[in-house]
Amino acid sequence: MNAVRQDPAQAESQGLFKGIAVVIDDGLVRAPRNGPDGIEAILKAIQDAGSHAVKLDALPKRDEELDNFANAAFFVMDWNLHGSKLDQVEEGQDGAGSHPDFNFSGLHIGGLENEYEQENVEFLTKLRERRHAPVFIFTNEDVDHVTDVLRESGLIGENLGSHILVKSKRDVGEDLFSVLEDWINQTPSALVLKQWERRQTLAVNQLFKEFHDQHKYWPVIFWNSFKQDGVSPAPELGELITRLVAARMKPLTANLDEFSDAAMQHFGANDAKYRQALHEVLQAERLLPNDLLVAGSYSTGDLFFDQNGDAPRYFLNIRAACDCIRREGFGQPDLYLIRGTIVEGEELAKLARPDFGNFHEADVETIVFALHQGRSVVFKFRTLAVKPASRLPGERVGRMLAPFLTRVTQRFAAYSHRSGLPRIPAALMPPEPPIAAGSGPAANEGGPSPCDCA
């Protein structure tokens, strides 16, 4: 049966939501008592669109069951999953013959309310850690009350919980995919990530098709090769597979131009929060967190943070990865560290080059913006510290990623291989032009400095 109430403009949104929907609603097994519950129309919309639903009449009882939702496209969930209790209330008693404190007709639940709602909150919190997919709470309960509970529980907020939508079942019905389209058109983060996820899924399938069936031993060959190199084979194999998947991903086609004005207005109203969020995005692009690295295994780009009293500093390992490997019969090789200091505030502003989106740098340094915890770090090349693994300063906070690491090592290589030139006699130097006000050297350049080769 063809999809209903769908126009061509909805095709892209429906495509992003293609896949298995998980529907959690006790109305699936409980006969409606006051007219249609509304879940029937939602299920019909899913089926008419050619999708399929996994139907549950209660929340999963074991956390391990959440792993089975790893590839779900989206979730539809009722807020009141204990309708049979309400049926008993309408009849005047519960299973024990007493009369709990409930207000029927879908307005506000009392008595067991806190217990049941806490179950929902705990489920959504755990689900977010296992499968961060859109969750649509379509309910006959009071929408404002459900929203307040989610907000008080920290699941939604001004900059949180954009993957959760709460609406009345009466406002959804067979127009399910119209509602989903409206939601995703107001949530650019979901639009981009859902499209990227679909591209990644297709790329993974292509990789499996190419290598899983035809060359089943190829991972073993590379595993043995990594072991011969002396590196930890599991993470190296994981990085190889990541590159193979990335090489098969098609580019995104999402167009976010229509969100630009709204984003700028929202950014202005939430300046501090958005700056923090953007810093976190940039850090994830620049730094692989330490908890994803193998303990005791070092490589180029390892970043260490040393509080050093009131003068915090960073150290970056620039020694080649192959020279950082612990070889059989030898100890852990020394690391070659360059020191970095935090540059911020007015000092950073003086170095800014807004036209190019970067910063002025002297030949003896490299600036990495928003490298760690929102801090920008300037790495100086004049001092190279050689440290054994047992005496590394501070603690490792992560591993810098390309192309940022590549730029640091390239500039260090250029600095370390520079050739000193003899000074031109002062009598032959052209006279210096007058310096206009406000056109002095950049804050990190200063005046002429002698060669430090000696």
Could you describe the 3D structure shown?
By secondary structure, the chain is of the alpha/beta class. It has 3 domains: 8-186, Response regulator (Rossmann fold), CATH 3.40.50.2300; 192-269, no CATH class; 286-418, SH3 type barrels (Roll). It contains 13 helices and 14 strands. Strand 12 and strand 13 form a beta hairpin. Helix 8 (218-229) crosses helix 9 (233-246) and helix 10 packs across helix 11. Residues 1-13 and 97-109 have low confidence and may be disordered.
Write the layout of secondary structure elements.
Elements: H1 11-16, E1 20-24, H2 39-48, E2 52-56, E3 74-77, H3 83-91, H4 113-130, E4 135-139, H5 143-152, E5 164-168, H6 176-184, H7 188-211, H8 218-229, H9 233-246, H10 260-269, H11 271-286, E6 287-289, E7 302-306, E8 313-317, E9 335-343, H12 345-351, E10 352-353, E11 358-359, E12 365-372, E13 375-387, E14 395-400, H13 404-416
Parallel strand pairs: 1-2, 1-3, 3-4, 4-5
Antiparallel strand pairs: 6-14, 7-8, 7-14, 8-9, 9-13, 10-11, 12-13
Terminal Cα span: 82 Å
One letter per element, helices H and strands E, the order comes to HEHEEHHEHEHHHHHHEEEEHEEEEEH
Share of residues in strands: 15-25%
Coarse morphology: globular
Number of helices: 13
Mean pLDDT: 83
Q: What is the number of E strands?
A: 14
How many domains?
3
Query: In CATH's first tier, which class of the largest domain applies?
Result: Alpha Beta
Estimated helix fraction:
25-40%
Radius of gyration: 30 Å
CATH architecture annotation name of the largest domain? 3-Layer(aba) Sandwich
Main β-sheet description:
7 strands, antiparallel
For the biggest β-sheet, the strand order reads 6-14-7-8-9-13-12
For CATH, the homologous superfamily of the largest domain is named as Response regulator
CATH topology of the largest domain, anyone?
Rossmann fold
Indicate the structural class. alpha/beta
